[in-house]
Specification:
By secondary structure, this protein is mainly α. It contains 19 helices and no strands. It has helices spanning about 1-10, 25-30, 45-50, 50-90, 90-100, 110-145, 145-175, 185-215, 225-235, 240-255, 265-285, 285-290, 295-330, 330-335, 340-345, 350-365, 410-455, 460-490, 525-530.
Length: about 550
């Protein structure tokens, strides 16, 4: 049998092997792609698709939202659900506005905020309501006396489950949106928004149940259970849940500021913040069990001081971000990318707002053909290379209106022309203000990137990210630089003792491998002539200076 197998193998023709000399011949004989019989298998490509991930996340959140709303409506009834929803939504704008104000220096994208709120309101709330119900029933039947099951569930199980579910949103953004998670402020904002969404759904449940209780006993008005519940949850303690979860966010923020090599610290700090959040949550839930006045004692002695401490820490971190701009951006001013006034103006929120308003007024006035300028006598509306801001929409330089074929223009035509001119002027002003706002955002990101590089928390793509930010700044510099210089002067930031010294012994040299920038403009060139509207002097079309005019 073995001999037959050997004979069979020897009788088969030998399969020719690919010789190195025939590589060119074989590759030339490969058919076109549409005639391929074998195609590469896309292993794992679906999971790498950004569209697939976005659709999957929002599908999961939508399913959780429908499930949690159905559970809450089942417990409160339709009428109680609607009343609870109407009352629970009242503190939400206040909470979101507070956290967005805190994030004004380097605001994160809205998609992170929406994801965090949706996760807290739907996913975390669904996990909490299911886990708490199961744990309470399990305690009542197996371990504790049924009368104490609710107390143990509220003080032991609920804090662990709820804070873990809310911390999952912070962890996901920390892992998958790492470039947008840079420090304490980002952690506080994401954690606070997540907890605000969770409190929103929880308030619907509590207020709906309170309304149902009032319907049974016939209470109404100020003395009703609904009014008391709303006062405690929405007036006295709207920041309760955000305060708990903010401790977790602070832990993640401190971990984000640590160097990549400090892995132990980057792991321990978020866990420590989560444990503190669970402990504070447990103390708050158990305050009513301690004594008849335990709630007020915990509220006055513990919650209010901790709230003040966390608020101070968040505002201090926000001011620290502004000081980072004043410390990191002078390097680029020394190289000629920025003027000496810009780091001072960018490190002041008042100067930032004034620069946007001044740019909006200036370019709107220039589009109308007026000579007024808020930047002072040294700035001319039509002096910029390639700018058409000194031309009134609908007019051409040197054109002389001839005699009209009609007796006079109608009043409607005159009003239409005036309206078109006003719309064009408003479009110029809005585009200029938007360009200044984008310039401020990119400059803030550039300063944060340099700070991360000094801390050792950036990746190997630091040079590419720096060049990209410089490119965005250069495109908007013609609009933003005069506005920021004016704002620095108007706010009194240019006093001699406020001028920052150069922090580097030698001049900072930008990366030379990017051909559009070269070695960067010198300081004399930066002040002698404004840069062009494109990524290099005088190059390209600048949409921030010349928005399209409305049709006439």
């Amino acid at each position: 049998m073995s001999d037959g197998s050997v004979q069979q193998r020897l009788s088969q023709p030998a399969v020719p092997l690919l010789k190195e000399q025939r590589v060119g011949e074989i590759l030339a004989a490969v058919p076109e792609r549409k005639h391929w019989r074998y195609r590469p298998r896309r292993v794992g490509m679906v999971w790498r698709s950004r569209t697939f991930r976005v659709v999957a996340v929002f599908t999961v959140l939508a399913i959780c939202g429908l499930a949690i709303l159905a559970l809450v409506r089942d417990q409160t009834g339709t009428q109680g659900f609607l009343v609870g929803l109407g009352l629970a939504v009242l503190p939400v704008p206040l909470l979101l506005a507070a956290f967005r104000w805190l994030d004004r220096v380097d605001p994160g994208p809205w998609r992170n905020v929406l994801f965090a709120f949706a996760w807290g309101a739907f996913a975390a709330a669904l996990v909490a309501i299911l886990a708490n119900s199961f744990a309470t029933r399990w305690i009542a039947t197996t371990i504790a006396d049924p009368s104490n099951a609710d107390t143990l569930g509220a003080t032991v199980i609920a804090p662990v489950v709820e804070e873990s579910a809310k911390a999952a949103a912070v962890l996901l953004i920390f892992l998958f949106r790492r470039r947008e998670f840079n420090g304490i402020v980002d952690g506080v904002v994401i954690a606070g928004v997540t907890a605000s969404g969770f409190a929103f759904t929880e308030n619907i449940l509590y207020l709906g149940n309170a309304f149902g209780e009032d319907q049974q006993i016939g209470n109404s008005g100020v003395v009703s259970v609904t009014a008391a519940t709303f006062f405690v949850r929405a007036v006295m303690s709207p920041f309760a849940h955000p305060l708990f979860t903010v401790l977790t966010g602070i832990g993640f923020g401190l971990a984000a500021a640590c160097a990549r090599r400090r892995r132990i610290r980057r792991t321990v700090l978020p866990l420590l913040g989560l444990v503190l959040a669970m402990g504070m949550h447990s103390l708050w839930n158990g305050s009513g069990v301690l004594s008849p006045y335990g709630f007020y004692a915990v509220y006055a002695v513990f919650m209010v001081p901790v709230f003040g401490l966390v608020t101070w820490l968040a505002i201090w971190s926000r001011r620290r971000e502004l000081r980072t701009l004043a410390a990191e951006l002078p390097a680029y001013a020394a190289a000629g990318w920025l003027s000496p006034e810009e780091p001072l103006a960018l490190s002041s929120m008042r100067a930032r707002g004034l620069a946007r308003d001044a740019a909006r007024r200036q370019y709107a006035v220039a589009a109308r053909g007026s000579r007024y300028t808020p930047y002072g006598p040294g700035w001319a509306p039509g002096s910029m290379p390639g700018s058409t801001l000194g031309v009134v929409p609908g007019s051409m330089p040197g054109a002389v209106p001839g005699p009209s074929a009609q007796a006079a223009q109608t009043k409607a035509a005159t009003q239409a022309a005036a309206q078109a001119a006003a719309q064009a002027a408003e479009a110029h002003g809005k585009a200029a203000a938007r360009a200044v706002a984008e310039y401020e955002s990119f400059a803030t990101s550039l300063a944060a990137l340099r700070l991360q590089a000094r801390r050792g928390t950036t990746g190997p793509d630091f040079a590419e990210r720096e060049l990209e930010l410089l490119h965005h700044l250069w495109q908007r510099r013609e609009v933003a630089a005069p506005a920021l210089a004016y704002a620095a002067q108007a706010t009194g930031l240019l006093r001699p003792h406020r001028l920052p010294p150069l922090p580097y012994a030698q001049q900072f040299t930008p990366h030379t491998q990017y051909g559009a920038y070269g070695n960067g403009p010198t300081q004399a060139q930066a002040h002698a002539q404004p840069p062009g509207p494109g990524p290099g002097p005088g190059a390209g079309y600048n949409p921030y200076l010349r928005p399209q005019q409305p049709p006439r």
